[in-house]
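Re: beginner question about structure tokens

> Can someone show what the tokenized structure looks like for a real chain? I only ever see the sequence side.

Sure, here's an example I had lying around. Input first:
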Amino acid sequence: MDALRKPNAANSSPLTPLGFLERAAIIYDDSPSIVYNDLTYTWSDTYRRCLQLASSISRLAIGKGDVVSVLAPNIPATYELHFAATMTGAVFNTINTRLDARNVSTLLVHSESKLVFVDYQLIPLIQEAVSLLSDKCPCPLLVVITDDAAASFSTTMDYNFFISTYETMVEAGDPGFIWARPKSDWDPLTLTYTSGTTSAPKGVVHSHRGTFIGTMSSLLDWFVPKQPVFLWTLPMFHVSGWNYVWGMAAVGGTNVCLRKFDASVIYNSIYKFHVTHMCGAPIVLNMLTKVNPLCHKVHILTSGAPPPPAVLLKIESLGFEVTHFYGMTEAGGPATACTWKEKWNKFPASERAKLKARQGVRTVGMADVYVVDSESGLSVKRDGLTQGEIVIKGGCIMSGYLKDPEAAATCIKNGWFYTGDVGVMHPDGYLEIKDRSKDVIISGGENISSVEVESVLYSHPAVNEAAVVGRPDEYWGETPCAFVSLKDAEGKPRPTGEEIMKFCKGKLPGYMVPKSVVFKDELPKTSTGKIQKNVLREIARSMGFSGKSRI
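And the corresponding structure tokens:
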């Protein structure tokens, strides 16, 4: 038997999600792959276009290990680039379109991106970001993505800033291009940043193997059938749309792309394309509570923050069937799923909503999920009361942080990934989060580092102390709330909350700017002088939904 423990050439071919596209072109050749406005591609079209684009990218001397980025919304090009860029052997990086130029520039430097595809509406952003690069950092090659609306967007836009257009590269490519298969399971496939920060950006690297396992897990745990119609209300820059960029190719689904959306656009798209599946942070669920009842069931997957039971009750009454996942970028997307039990259907609606708000059990791609005591490292009691840190392990866990092994070592230890999230384990084995990492605020599905916001607040000449926590918000889930004490300045006017927010607005992306400011004579501290954020969180919660600044 010992001789059979070794792999052979036939059974050790590297796992990769890129093969899903090649397979889809065979099985679902004439079935729609992408729908965008009046444009429709089939799976054979998409495979051919990706091969042609990969061919053109490789002609730019870009290949194995190089980073190719995209700065664009949920449009066909963003979907195609996931496959085309990586078919050259390159590592694909999606840039958060909500970042400001300073943060985009920082990520370009850190990733050493050699080629960036940019949507025409984001040309001013990339131009400013590139202008901030130092002389020591080479400017990446830039390709502009246009569509039929681009001509009317701006007649003065300087397209000479770019080496080519997206469609020109597709048309010039070779449809017979032989795509570069990974040499190893562990070859890097994607680079995703957990947040845009000027000091220490965390670039999460996922391998072909991890992404393959994560994709299959995402499909199985949501019970996605063949050929669903998937509405892209989740940003593709969020861990490849929680792996459903790759997943839709695996099951031959139809990707309905949306450049931007609101409740009416979602509602109309559901009817027009007979949408069966969609994903989104709780903000999307809040948005949909205002639409009319559906005429057919739509499966919606939510994650990013625990959805309020009241929102779940409302949205399910309209015809949506909600599934709740818990995950993170480092876990390759979903780590646990609140898998529904048939017997729970007999419970009252309010009880069902509470059960559905829990984070659930490990996904197929996770080997184990536990809640452990922070001191002993041992599992806590499964009583739904004893709190501890959530730890996970499995094939979907990241390879590490780009250029930051120290940060990886702080969260990957003792054979586990330490999430920093606090939770409890119920007697039935289902996980429930009770609190999140101390310095992270989740607003509209976006992670906000309170430390970064605080550093900007501290740069205000009138600010003495600053601390930022999450405050409940009816639309965004929560928004940054700043607690500030001011310096003694006799004879000088005190800044207002609006002035503090305006100051931050010029230095932070819009979603990171505090939406409320609370002035205190002194911030509460522990005996060792540390600011008690737990106290501030309780104050923020007691204030109710976020609004204008308070004194």
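Each token stands for a local structural state, so reading them left to right follows the chain. Residues 217 and 253 are 16 Å apart (CA to CA).
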